[in-house]
Specification:
Layout lengths: L10 E5 L11 H7 L4 H20 L21 E8 L2 E8 L3 E10 L7 H5 L2 H13 L5 H20 L8 E6 L3 E6 L5 E2 L2 E2 L2 E8 L3 E9 L21
Antiparallel strand pairs: 1-3, 2-3, 4-10, 5-6, 6-9, 7-8, 9-10
Length: about 240
């Protein structure tokens, strides 16, 4: 599913269960896990399988993928990427840094957020748009999709800034056609295309999961977004 929403120049690898083959972790990766519980080990190992498969498709050898600052994955030189995992799903998206400046992906269970979470993460305008979207298309968990889009934006933001982006520092507009925009409400970094004021992304959903992705192409013009008032409108995962 993630391959349907990532840029054409990116490589996406996903697994909805255990990977089709077992891999041996690098010693440095084993050291990161230490005495982790089985669930954490399985998530970590499956994500590394996705990452190694994506690296191979880019013509690059396998390498240790270690969590760095705030848990963000450390990629080999010349590579940008993002990892996500949730119950029943793991994925990695990679690209050459000559093609993409950054990319962020996220997957979440397709179910409403726990009580109180939406109010904690949503801006007033976002909450209003989510209510209208939910009234129009109740089969989609729009609140969970909003959370996922904010996570994807953060994962794209952090490698450029090494700064935390709070939930109230990006205004997300979800559009039923499978796209979204994010207007940054804090000063963004300067990218090859100019100062970053916003990002655009895509989303998809199945009965079990929602998926989001945002990226900046190396040759892209600066993005400027402005939320509309109509209904059409945590740390990086390692």
């Amino acid at each position: 599913m993630i391959a349907t929403i990532v840029p054409a120049r990116a490589v996406a690898v996903e697994t909805f269960g255990d990977p089709p083959e077992r891999i041996a972790l690098f010693p440095e990766e084993e050291a990161v896990l230490g005495g982790s519980v089985a669930k954490r080990r399985d998530e970590f190992t499956a994500a590394r399988w996705c990452a190694r498969t994506a690296l191979r498709r880019l013509g690059r050898p396998a390498a240790p993928i270690l969590p760095g600052e705030r848990g963000a994955p450390g990629w080999p030189a010349g590579i940008v990427g993002s990892i996500t995992h949730c119950d029943g799903y793991r994925a990695c998206v990679l690209a050459r840094e000559t093609d993409l400046v950054t990319v962020g992906i996220d997957a979440e269970p397709h179910a409403p957020l726990p009580d109180g979470i939406l109010d904690a993460i949503g801006l007033p305008a976002e909450l209003d748009r989510i209510r209208r979207l939910a009234a129009q298309t109740p089969r989609i968990a729009w609140d969970r999709l909003l959370f996922s889009a904010k996570e994807a934006v953060y994962k794209a933001w952090f490698p450029l800034t090494h700064r935390f982006l709070d939930f109230d520092e990006a205004d997300i507009v979800l559009v039923p056609d499978g796209t979204f925009t994010a207007t940054l409400l804090t000063a963004g970094p300067v990218t090859p295309g100019g100062p970053l004021t916003g990002l655009v992304g895509r989303w998809a959903q199945t009965d079990d999961h929602v998926f989001t992705c945002t990226a900046i192409a190396r040759d892209a013009a600066p993005t400027s977004t402005a939320p509309t008032s109509t209904a059409r409108d945590a740390a990086p995962t390692s």
